[in-house]
Design goal:
By secondary structure, this protein is an alpha/beta fold. Helix content is 41%, strand content 14%.
Length: 313
Amino acid sequence: MSLINSVLGPLETKDLGFTLMHEHVISQGFVAQNYPELFDDHFMDKIISGISDAKKGGVDTIIDATTFDLGRDAAALAEISRKTKVNIIACTGWWMNMPQFIDGTSPDVYADLFVREIQEGIAGTGIKAGILKSAADFGGVMPEGEIMLRAVARAHIRAMVPIILHSYAPEQVARHQLSILKEEGVDLKWVAVDHVNDTTDLEYLIWLLDQGCYLGMDRYPGLNLSSRSRTETMKKLIDAGWTDRLLPSHDCSLATPDTFFPPEVKESILKGNPYGYLYLKKVVFTQLEEMGVPKAILDTLCVKGPRNFFEGA
């Protein structure tokens, strides 16, 4: 057991409960502060209603993977957590909207910022981040992204909070990301490679597990592979004995600006997931049960893996 930062203060890992490890409670929160008309009417009410429903359905904790450059709003997260009684953990680090003049910048410059948000708080709010995030997508780790990845690694070494990686599984980008983290001295038991259920390549997924990291199987229902295909891959990893290192989630936001996605993509997302943060429980777990996964294992999914991850097990 150990203490981690939630948006309402320290949280014991034993109290994480059923945890969704990669969500976006409110995407582009600073856009909402300035231009709320770009969001649906009463968007905060919709978020609070959706997360309250998730709480009633058994969700205890949500990791909000929204970095500063994705529009993180720590004060809104705290308000939502207070009103819904769901633990929310905010993240620091960087996604892919890179600062304009980052070339040649020492990673230590950004590591200092990330450590401050973990140890002192975000933007003067006193709300502390509890997880670090770095990102690389198709095309691999770009030079600017490498600076941020090394910054995240150095912040982790100093503050000892875990790391989640936005990665592009079809191109096996995490091979390079993990090699950089290892160069920086990161023990990969503190690392989750996210979005890995964008591939069905078991050889690659087991290679990642063999490195010691966790797998964020967090694209549900997803756009390019069917939900069932993603679940079949998870079932194979469960059968191979990796249950406690799997981190299922949705990568879902209950409120995004109307201009964030093309209209056809937004419509597809809404139609594909009518259950919000309960899609795993209502659809994926039902599929796993039909595939023969015992209830005892289903009861530990989203519980043991997240707790192990935050404890560095």
